[in-house]
Amino acid sequence: MTKQNDPGADTARYDRLRELGQQLRVDSVRAADAAGSGHPTSSMSAADLAAVLLSEYLRYDFADPENPGNDHLIFSKGHASPLVYSMGKAAGALTDEQLLTFRKNGSLLEGHPTPRIPWVDVATGSLGQGLPIGVGLALAGRDLDRVPYRVWVLCGDSEMAEGSMWEAFEHAGYEKLANLTAIIDVNRLGQRGPTRHGWDLDAYARRIRAFDWHTIEVDGHDVAAVDRAYAEAEATTDRPTAIIARTRKGQGVRAVADQEGKHGKPLKDAAEAIEELGGVRDLSVQVHGPRDAESRLRSGGGEPELPDYKVGDAVATRNAFGEALAALGAARGDVVALDGEVGDSTRAAFFADAHGDRYFECYIAEQQMVAAAVGMQVRGWVPYATTFAAFLSRAYDFVRMAAVSRADLNLVGSHAGVAIGEDGPSQMGLEDLAAFRAVHGSTVLYPCDANQAARLTAAMAGARGIRYLRTSRGESPVIYGPGEDFPIGGSKTLRSTPEDRVTIVAAGITVHEALAAADTLAGEGVAARVIDLYSLKPVDLPTLREAAEVTGRIITVEDHHPEGGLGDAVLDAFTDGHPVPRLARLAVRTMPGSASPEEQLRAAGIDAQAIAATARGLLTETP
After folding, report:
1. What is the pLDDT confidence band of residue 246, given thresholds at 50, 70 and 90?
2. What angle do CA 198, 202, 204 make, to 5 degrees?
C-alpha cells in the first residue's frame, strides 16, 4: 500500500498507530478483567503489530465477511483472543458492551476465537494450527479462487516448537505462496517460562529462510518499523514472508511486562494498568476495503455419473472411491482433493489425472494436508483429503479442531485393518473408527463393496461436519447392484427370515465373512440375520433394535480394535432403556504381525469360521 512521503503526515500517522496500539492493550486488559480470566499479557505484546495491520494493511469488509476479496487474518496464537476482539471493536464490528462479555456464558466471544463470529475463519487455540491452515487459504486464493486476497497469520513464539509449523513453512516455501505473511510475536515467554530461543530473532530467521521464505526482523513495538515490514511483505512477490518481531509480553505495564508467571491471568490491578497505559480510548479504524475480486466460476450441484460395478466382480473399495471421486469432480467444480504422497494407493490419483488443477499433493505431511483442507473449505471448496487410515492419526488434533471450527471436511482412510495383510501393524488402521466416531458431529462410513463405496463417496459431498470414509486395500466381491441406495445413517439387511435366531452385524471387509458364516449356519439349520452397518455414525437404530427383538442375540464383527468401533456403535443403540440383547463382540484383540489377509482374519478371530463358532456358542449357552 502506497504511503505518503510527508514527514509530518507520517509523524501524525505513527502517533495515531501508537495510540491505537495502546487502546488495543487497554481493551485486552478490560476484557480479561471483566471475565476474571484470559490472556491479556499475550495480547499486549502483539498490540502494535495488530494496530498497524488493522489500520494500514488489512483489507476486509466486516459487514460482508463472505466477500471473495477479503483478506484473511488468523490468530494462530488463539489465546490472544482479547486482542482479536479488541481489534473487532476498533473496526466497529463489536460494541464495547459486547467486548466486556468476553468468556461469559452465551457470549460469542469465547476464550479462544471460533467461527461463531462471522469474521473469524477458523477456531484456534491448539497451538501450531493457524499457519498450516493459512497455507490452505493461500493456496485456495492463488490456485482455486484466483483472487488477490492476502493471508495474515499471527503466530506465537512458543508454537514455533510445533512440528506442524515447520510442515507449513516448508509447504508454503515450496509453493512460493507470496500471498502469505506470517507475523511471529517473539515475546520471549511461554506459559511456564522462557521459550527455546528467547529473543534470538536470527535463530528463527535462519530456520525459516531455509524453507525459502523472505524474512524481516523488526522491533515489534516500533510502529514505523512494523509499517515498513508490512510494506516489504506486500512488495515481496516471489515467496512468502515472515515478519519476526521482538516484543515484550505485557508491554506497557511495569507489573507484568516481561515477567514470568503472568501468562493466562488477568492483571491484578486492572485500573492501575489502564491508567499506566494512558486510560480508556475510543479510537475507531476505517479498515481498508477488499480488493475487487470475483471467485473462479465453479460448476456444481450436478449428479455425478458414478461408476457401476457388476455383481460378482472383485473390486477394491479404494478403487471405487478413486473412480467415484473423479466422477464427482467432473460433476462438481467445487470438489478438490488432497493427498499425502500415497495417491497411487488411496486412488486419489484418479482425481489427479482427471482434474489436476484441483489436486494438491501435500507429501508426507498429514497435519499440513488436513490443515490445508480446512483452509480451503473456509472459501467454500469441498475437500477430500486422503491417506492411509493409520496415518490420519498424526493429524487427529487438526480434525478435532476442525470440528470446533464447524468445518465441512471429507477424510478418507485407506488400507484399514488387518486385512491389508503382509505389511504388518505399522500400516494397519485399527483405531480410526473409534477416533472419528469420537469427533463432535462426525459421520463415519465403511463400505463393503464397490457400488456402495462409490455412492457413499458422492453422498459425503452433501453432508455437513467431519465425514470419514474407510476403504480397503484388497479386492472384495461386489454384492450390491448399481441401483442400490445407501443413505447416510442407514444399513442393509442381507439375510433375514422370521425364524432368525442370531444377528450378525458387520461392516466393510467383515460383511463378506458374515455372509459366509450365515451360509455355514444355514447348512446346520440355523437362520442368521446379517446386517451391513455401513454407517457407523449415525447408526440405523430401528434396524438394530428390531433385530435384537426378533433374534435376542447379536454378534458384532469388525476389523478394528474392540474399543470404540462397530461393537460400541451397536451397543449404543441399547443405552437409552431399550432391552439389551445377548451380545458377543469379535474384534482385533492381539497385536498382528505379517501374514496374508486370510491368515490375518483367522488369527484375529474375525473370519467366517470364528463368527459361526461364536453363533453356536450363543445358541447353546443358557441365558
Report:
1. very high
2. 70
Contact 386, 564 (CB under 8 A): no
C-alpha angle with apex 336: 480 to 149, nearest 5 degrees?
160
- Cβ neighbours of residue 543 closer than 8 Å, sequence gap 6 or more: 491, 493, 531
Count CB neighbours of 41 within 10 A: 30
Contacts of 456-461 with C-beta under 8 Å, sequence gap 24+, read 456/486, 456/488, 456/534, 457/320, 457/321, 457/324, 457/325, 457/328, 457/412, 458/304, 458/306, 458/324, 458/327, 458/328, 459/486, 459/487, 459/488, 460/384, 460/410, 461/328, 461/332, 461/335, 461/382, 461/410
Which amino acid is it at 367? Q
In which band, very low, low, confident or very high, does the pLDDT at 622 lie, cut at 50, 70 and 90?
low
Q: Are the CB atoms for 188 and 199 separated by under 8 Å?
A: yes
pLDDT tens digits, one per residue of 551-605 = 999 999 999 999 999 999 999 999 888 888 999 999 999 999 999 999 999 999 9
Taken in order 79, 81, 84, 90, the sign of the CA dihedral is negative
Left, alpha or beta for 38 (phi > 0: left; psi -120 to 50: alpha)?
left
pLDDT digit string, tens, across residues 304-359: 999 999 999 999 999 999 999 999 999 999 999 999 999 999 999 999 999 999 99
Q: Give the sign of the dihedral formed by CA 602, CA 563, CA 510, CA 403.
A: negative
Whether the ω angle into residue 542 lies within 30 degrees of 0, i.e. cis, is no
Q: Grid coordinates representing 417?
A: 485393518
Residue 541 burial (CB count, 10 A): 16
Report CA torsion sign: 29, 32, 37, 42: negative
**Cell numbers 509447504 correspond to what residue?**
171
What is the identity of the amino acid at 394?
R
Report the distance separating Cα 314 and Cα 321, nearest Å.
Answer: 14
With a CB cutoff of 8 Å and minimum separation 6, the contacts of 377 are 383, 407, 408, 409
From the list 182, 216, 220, the residue with the least C-alpha distance to 48 is 220
- Residue 551 to residues 134, 324, 377, 503: CA-CA distances in angstroms? 53, 37, 45, 6
Residues serving a catalytic function are 366
Alpha-helical (H) ranges within 95-243 are 96-99, 130-139, 163-175, 201-209, 223-235
CB 131 within 8 A of CB 168: yes
What's the count of helices (H) and strands (E) in the chain, helices before strands? 22, 19
Q: Are 384 and 468 in contact (CB under 8 A)?
A: no
Q: What's at 15, amino acid-wise?
A: D
b/e per residue 226-263 (b: at least 16 CB within 10 A): bbebbeebeeeeebbbbbbbbbbbbbbbeebbbeeebb
The Cα 78–Cα 197 span in angstroms is 21
Other CB atoms closer than 10 Å to residue 212's CB: what's the count?
A: 16
